[in-house]
Write a structure and sequence with these properties.
- This protein is α/β, with parallel strands linked by helices and 506 residues long.
- It has four domains: 95 residues, MutS, DNA mismatch repair protein, domain I (3-Layer(aba) Sandwich); 154 residues, P-loop containing nucleotide triphosphate hydrolases (Rossmann fold), CATH 3.40.50.300; 152 residues, P-loop containing nucleotide triphosphate hydrolases (Rossmann fold, 3-Layer(aba) Sandwich); 57 residues, no CATH class.
- It is built from 18 helices and 20 strands.
- The strands form three sheets. An eight-stranded mixed beta sheet has the order 9-8-10-7-11-12-6-13, sandwiched between helices. Strands 16-17-15-18-19-14-20 form a seven-stranded parallel beta sheet, with helices on both faces.
- Helix 11 packs antiparallel against helix 13.
């Protein structure tokens, strides 16, 4: 069904209050009468169309555009002799047209209402109810909740309440298929899939960030609600097009770790909406989430590793020092850019990577890992590493599955099901299990390598915090002393989730 041309949908920031915006969005109506076909020409009739991920408006003078819309939204397109704007501005444009339409015919929205056949969602917990209410006040914005507290259930409840065309966008294929299963189970709807060589578009569909960027120029006007899972991945020059090319007036972002090291999370306010609800691990620790302990296990490089580590460190530091004598503005970013054109820069980069590899793959880490396997024999574990090479070392040493980004879907399912059923005592992963994918109930994680970000640290901790009775979760962080590994560990532990970390020798 097509939307009535006079139907209006406005963005929250154009209203004086959340209540006004809510009343406005409640007024959404649908009529069976279709607007004129795109090839129908009416003399001097102005049209608002969706084309290639943008809005196109014709038969408007520059003076009229400035008077009605102001500056900063529209750009004159000499190729088509019409005005163009990013699709994300549709609610704002429609609000302006509703007051001063001048006979402009809106042919943009192609969304439709959805009637659920079988809604069987679990009863929401208090914090989940609060999240739904907070988002419903504006119908746009970001919800931040720790891993294991049910962000997906919040989104499904919102979908059930809104009953409209919805696109769920996730960072990876595994999460896309996971959303498909959850929608089928909770709402009784076999959603469309857009991605992984499948193009099946339905009023309710799931896709990935990359596929959304590719197909949004065609699909951007077909969904009234768009949900970005793990939305901290959205900011950026390419992925953010998935938000900019959509006209959806209702937007929901979900994440457990909002802040990014580059500060780009600030762009989410424009792409999705403001932060409307935030829940910290400390607020639900021992409640919705399991109680847990974090132990830091220090290890040392052996003599051979220490000598080589110091040699490589000296090579890198001497090069950087000499470059800065000639160019005070020289940075590590400059070095990375020069590796493709300078042979010397390439040598230094290889030295740096070998140095970091020694930290990540220290032999003493494998010894401690062996002792932890003995200490927790019979208990499923996840081992998080900092590189694919280290993941393979652990996999070969202890004969456990190695789960990496390039593993196929069937392989991943086999590993995770095997861990849940006790076929595999543990699995080792680099970054593929850091977020999003539902894992079996595992209460022990061992971190032997990773980045310095508190975001990754919280994500990895969250993988073991799903509550199961009164069982306590344990996270071991194995750190190479007197190396940069120590500094990264210190930065990771700046998160309040790591408060109370204790040292432990194994």
């Amino acid at each position: 069904m097509k939307k009535d041309p006079k139907h209006v949908c406005a963005s929250y920031d154009q209203f004086s209050s959340a209540a006004d915006h809510l009343e406005f969005t409640k007024s959404l109506t649908f009529k069976t009468t279709a607007p004129p076909a795109y090839n129908t020409k009416v003399h001097n009739q102005a049209y608002l169309d969706f084309r290639d991920g943008t809005l196109v408006l014709d038969h408007w003078s520059r003076q009229a555009m400035t008077r009605v819309f102001g500056d900063g939204i529209w750009t004159w397109d000499e190729r088509t002799n019409s005005w163009r704007a990013n699709a994300i501005h549709y609610p704002t444009i429609q609000k302006a047209l509703s007051a001063n339409s001048y006979g402009t015919l809106d042919r943009v929205p192609q969304w439709q209402p959805v009637v659920w056949s079988d809604v069987s969602l679990p009863e929401l917990r208090t914090e989940q109810i609060d999240a739904v209410k907070a988002w419903s006040e504006t119908r746009r914005g970001v919800v931040v909740m720790p891993t294991g507290t049910g962000k997906t259930e919040v989104a499904l409840r919102i979908m059930a309440d809104q009953g409209c065309s919805t696109l769920v966008v996730s960072p990876i294929r595994d999460l896309m298929y996971q959303w498909h299963r959850r929608i089928l189970k909770g709402l009784g709807y076999d959603s469309g899939i857009i991605g992984d060589n499948v193009y099946n578009v339905k009023p309710i569909s799931v896709t990935t960030f990359d596929s959304a960027c590719i197909h949004m120029p065609v699909l951007g006007n077909r969904f009234q609600l768009i949900i970005f899972d793990e939305c901290h991945h959205l900011p950026g020059p390419i992925r953010s097009d998935a938000a900019r090319m959509s006209i959806a007036p209702m937007r929901l972002g979900l994440t457990a770790t909002l802040e990014r090291g580059d500060g780009q999370h600030s762009k989410l306010d424009q792409l999705i909406g403001p932060l409307v609800y935030r829940l910290e691990i400390s607020q639900v620790r021992g409640g919705s989430l399991a109680e847990y302990d974090v132990f830091r296990v220090p290890v040392f490089l052996n003599d051979r590793e220490r000598v080589r580590y110091d040699q490589l460190g000296e090579v890198v530091s001497n090069y950087v020092y000499e470059r800065r004598q000639d160019d005070p503005t020289f940075t590590w970013k400059t070095l990375c850019a020069e590796t493709q054109s300078s042979g010397q820069a390439g040598i230094i980069m290889r030295a740096y990577r070998e140095k970091k590899s020694i930290e990540d793959r220290a032999e003493e880490k494998l010894r401690v890992l062996e002792d932890l396997f003995r200490l927790h024999h019979g208990t499923p574990m996840i081992i998080f590493v900092g590189s694919n090479a280290m993941a393979r070392d652990v996999s070969r040493r202890f004969l456990i599955p190695c789960l990496l980004n390039h593993c196929g879907k069937a392989e991943r399912i086999d590993y995770l099901d095997g861990l849940r059923d006790g076929v595999y005592p543990a699995i080792v992963a680099n970054q593929v299990l850091d977020e999003g994918v539902d894992l079996p109930e595992v209460k022990i994680a061992i971190v032997i390598g990773g980045m310095a970000s508190t975001r990754q640290a919280k994500q990895r901790l969250g993988r073991i915090l799903r509550r199961r009775g009164e069982e306590r979760a344990l996270l071991y962080e194995v750190v190479a002393k007197d190396t940069n590994d120590t500094g990264r560990s210190r930065k990771r532990r700046k998160s309040d989730a790591y408060a109370g970390t204790r040292n432990r020798n194994v």
